[in-house]
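Bit of a strange request maybe. I'm writing a small parser for structure token strings and I need a real example to test against, not something I typed by hand. Could someone generate the tokens for this chain?
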Amino acid sequence: MQNAEKIAALKRELREIIGSGTAHGINMVLAETKEGDLEKILLRKDELRVAVIQTITVKAREFTNRFLNEEVPSDYNYSSEYKPKSLSEQIEILKELFGDMGQANQSLLVQIETNRVSLPEGAEGWFAIPNWIKKPEIFGENYAKALYKVLNKIKLTKNGNFINFRNRKLGPEYLQPSARSVAFFRALSVEQDDPNIVIVPAQFGLLHRGRSYRRTQEMLKRKEFCLDAFSNGIMLLTHPNRLKEIENLRIVCADEYHPYGEVTQDLLQSPVFRLCTDDVVEFSVVSVDKPHERYGSSTGFII
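Reply from user aminoacidic:
Good idea to test on real output. This should exercise your parser:
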């Protein structure tokens, strides 16, 4: 009990320190910024919110460098047949699978396809991810329904060679998208004028292979975020060759999975996509604290 009280007191002190520092920063901005500039800042409020999260989390991680023992050597790789497709190809695949998806930001799309925008460091390609919240008629009105829709499409495109080991256990009491991932994806969407399809520079797991999910969280760069199961499922639909052979690197997703339907840090797990044979894709979970040479977390990047 004394230990719990000590931890609670430390958390209160840390919250006060961060709160007072943030308040001081706010006062400086308000004192130094003209009315017209305040309006400009508020037009980009989502980006500002992400910047605050980035600054606090990255600096805190520099002080702690936690979970050093949750990383193992790995030489597992992608299938030799995998290669990121052009955005135009990906968007056409999505339209064939889901119907009229709308458009990505056309200005950014042209800049990328004419090589006027470079990939951020760490990214291996540009990926087209539906902004599912804008298409409830296709994906449903919540994250669980959107994810089920994608998993069912994977099963369909795999001719039934797909196993969902968490079937009927993907509701909000079990599955919680990472707050950082939600905020960063939202920031990308806002940067691109909130399109129906968001363009995400990303890597499919190789960058963080051999690391546990929570060690990966510690190693994220300032503009990097883990991709959720929905995004990974979409990327597998547009790039089925990513999981082609049994030895291919498995994919860890950003969501937090609570196996007993209780939102607690005990027994916390992360969803994964993997092959159980050379034909059958599985959707399952792994513990967030278990490093494994066969797994790597996929991540996206702010442009």
